[in-house]
Design goal:
- This protein is of the alpha/beta class.
- The chain is 43% helix and 17% strand.
- It has a six-stranded mixed β-sheet, sandwiched between helices. Strands 2-1-3-4 form a four-stranded parallel β-sheet, with helices on both faces.
- Helix 1 links the parallel strand 1 and strand 2.
- The radius of gyration is 29 Å and the shape is elongated.
């Protein structure tokens, strides 16, 4: 797979899909539209679509014989899958052919270099390496399934070291079973003797993945320590489908300059910022990686640590693109993925974003369908202020008041109180500072324990 950079088009792409039993026409069409957006994010332009109703994708090349020929007419291929494995030649055979001047036989014809021909076939299913290989033979065009496209997009958009490691693990895991034996493969000599080039490449991939996992574990341990330091702080996680507007909302709520792009999976790195204007105690807001239908399991597993921000949040905001006709299905996908990683237990609010793109009638209908949802636009300051107040009110209802006496010898505890709770009053007494505070019960309980341990330490002295 190639690393795509820049915004220039890499050529045309043809979408291929099989409509399975139980999938409605609307669902099938929506899936193709989404595949088209994925392809465009990768840098290709959609130039055609070949779709077929089948009980299951063809085991040979996804499509049936007739549709395969139709696809080949677009790509300039033969439309036929060569039978049998490529013939291997011994060194003696190749030397004999070279001495006779016979041209080396190619395993398959070279692809047409006509610039108008499509450069990619995008399959809206997860397909096997043999299916991909047969499609390429029949069409003369490289093939990526939905998983491969998503992995490539992640590879392009990963910026932090952690995200790059996570994506490379998923990418190598995807590539390994798709490596192909060349027709001139020879056994290795010396180190790794007896291995073919293919076996050697696969072993190198396994070793590389092991190295990446070890490095990733060290980074995740560091992040775990950082999350532990934030324990007790109020935390809000923005979760939702890719391109639902989470980053725009993050920027509006926190005043941070996070990346905002109208692309799928523009954000892969978790960003944590304080709600702005700041509150007492502080409320932290985190942006998370977006979800999508048929999100590859390897990527879900790789980004499990990133999604821990959602797992440990005090409040989940489900951000939905209200202007997307398939927003109900997208919300279901988000809930499903969070359920899969066990991060759906926290209290949540539904935020219907991009409502400025709806008509008054559509907005009223949406409000009737989701009466508890917050209908808004991240680009409308009054809507953002209303959402901010809803976040503050959510935590406010759970806060309680208490008094803590801080000995004069333990004044550093006063700073911690100001960091994690709201100070209502201070009174300087003979034994120390009596602080009346308002905060979350768990935080006040921990501060009480610190107060108790301080008193015990003074008693021992």
């Amino acid at each position: 797979m190639q690393n795509v950079s820049g915004g220039e088009s890499l050529g045309g792409a043809v979408l291929v899909a099989v409509q399975l039993p139980g999938v409605s026409d609307a669902e099938h069409e929506a899936s193709l539209v989404e595949l088209g957006r994925l392809v465009r994010t990768l840098g290709y332009q959609v130039v055609g679509t070949v779709s077929q109703r089948r009980d299951a994708p063809s085991a040979a090349a996804v499509l049936g014989e007739g549709k395969l020929k139709e696809l080949a007419e677009i790509t300039g291929g033969t439309g036929k899958v060569p039978s049998g494995a490529p013939q291997r030649k011994s060194k003696v055979r190749r030397r004999w052919e070279a001495e006779r001047g016979e041209p080396e036989q190619k395993e398959e014809p070279e692809a047409d270099e006509d610039p108008s021909r499509p450069k990619l076939i995008a399959v809206d299913h997860e397909i096997s390496p043999s299916q991909a290989r047969n499609l390429e033979r029949a069409t003369g065009v490289p093939v990526l399934d939905r998983t491969g496209i998503i992995v490539e997009i992640f590879h392009r958009h990963a910026r932090s070291r952690e995200a790059r490691l996570q994506v490379e693990i998923a990418r190598l895991t995807y590539v390994a079973p798709r490596l192909r034996e060349s027709g001139t493969s020879e056994r290795q000599q010396g180190r790794g003797a007896g291995e073919s080039a293919l076996e050697l490449d696969r072993r190198k991939i396994r070793d590389r993945v092991a190295e990446l996992r070890e490095e990733l574990a060290a980074i995740q341990q560091r992040d775990e320590n950082r999350r532990h330091q934030r324990e007790g702080q109020l935390r809000v996680a923005l979760v939702g489908y890719t391109n639902a507007g989470k980053s725009s909302l993050m920027r509006a709520l926190t005043g941070s300059h996070v990346l905002v792009q109208d692309k799928l999976f523009a954000t892969l790195d978790t960003t944590v910022r304080a709600l702005h204007p700041e509150t007492k105690p502080r409320i932290l807001v985190s942006d998370t990686v977006g979800f999508i239908k048929k999100l590859p399991h390897d990527l879900v597993a790789s980004f499990r640590s990133t999604l821990d921000e959602a797992h440990e949040a005090s409040l989940l905001l489900y951000v939905v693109d209200a202007a997307d006709p398939m927003h109900e299905e997208e919300l279901a996908v988000t809930r499903s993925v969070l359920r899969e990683i066990g991060a759906d237990a926290a209290p949540s609010r539904l935020v219907m974003n991009k409502c400025d793109l709806l008509s008054d009638e559509a907005r009223a209908a949406l409000g009737a369908l989701h009466p508890d949802a917050i209908l808004m636009s991240a680009h409308q300051p009054e809507d953002v202020a209303r959402l901010r107040q809803a976040i503050v009110d959510f935590f406010e209802t759970s806060m309680v008041e208490d008094e803590i006496v801080v000995p004069y010898a333990e004044q550093k505890l006063v700073g911690e109180i100001y960091e994690t709770a709201r100070v209502l009053s201070e009174a300087y007494e003979e034994t120390g500072v009596r602080v009346r505070v308002k905060g979350m019960p768990a935080v006040l309980s921990r501060l009480r324990q610190r107060e108790g341990s301080s008193a015990a330490g003074r008693g021992r002295r």
